[in-house]
Amino acid sequence: MSDSVARVESLLGELETLEDPVAREKATEVVQAVVEMYGEGLERILERVDGRMLAEDELVAHLLMLHDLHPIPVQDRVREALDGVRPYLESHGGDVELLGLDGDAVVRLRMHGSCHGCPSSTMTLKLAIEDAIQKAAPEVERIEAEGTSEPAPALLQLEVTEAVRGDWATVGALPELRTSDTVVKRVAGAPLLFAELTGNLYAYRASCPGCEASLEGAGLHEGELACPACGRRYDVRRAGRCLDEPQLSLEPMPLLTDDEGIAKVAIPAGVA
After folding, report:
1. Distance CA 84, CA 80 (A)
2. 169 and 264 Cβ atoms separated by less than 8 Å
3. How far, in Å, CA of 170 to CA of 162, rounded?
4. What is the DSSP letter of 72?
């Protein structure tokens, strides 16, 4: 969300706290009149220009959605969002299928696959899907995900909340990966390991679950990451599963990149 949008929403919230009911009503009426005026102006602009090109700008897209003028249907935006996050889901041994929408408020998904031995996989996939959909279609209020993983299918309620979206921290473009297989970088106080394979970026907690040593300087060969301290090998493409001791697994971090290659991660509580 841009700073402008956040400020407007904050000011609107303050209007509701005005003690004078007449002042509160008049202020609200003025805001509504201004919103309607800009909505009418946007509608006229869309009659003359390519709305899809305008919608590429995040702030303009927000305004178009506010006035129900977005040129791309919600279902198409959700589908594009899922396509964008699918490589990350596949790296965790999973995938997602869009079943449909109930109006514009509820997205119904089916999750495929599972990530055995990865205790944080459910949360990481949940965060990645929520963030991708919320960015593309803020009007979505709820996501219902039908799981197909073992031991039995379940219906998960993926509530789209500001608290979840606020946990994402910007990492940057990670130019270090142009000259190194892996890089350890401290993000929001947490040391994280980043690796890139065939165009896909991966992020893990930068400590070996076997010996608890730092993974800084860890080697990477054909998707296998080796702990520099104990030599245990981990499959970077499959949620960091240990190839030597199946009960061990690196802790993956939810990671997304935007169109400009800027990465961001969601760091769960307790990771430091």
Report:
1. 6
2. yes
3. 16
4. S
Let me know whether 179 and 244 are in one domain: yes
Range of the domain at 260: 168-266
Q: Give the tokens for residue 229.
A: 């301290």
Task: Give the CATH number of the domain where residue 246 resides.
Answer: 2.102.10.10
Count of domains in the chain?
3
pLDDT tens for the chain, 272 residues long, are 456 667 777 777 787 788 888 888 888 888 888 878 877 887 788 777 777 777 767 777 777 777 777 778 888 889 988 888 887 777 666 788 889 888 778 898 887 765 444 444 555 667 778 878 887 888 888 888 776 444 333 344 444 444 334 467 889 888 888 888 899 999 988 899 999 887 778 889 999 999 999 999 998 988 899 999 999 999 988 778 899 998 898 988 877 777 677 888 877 665 65
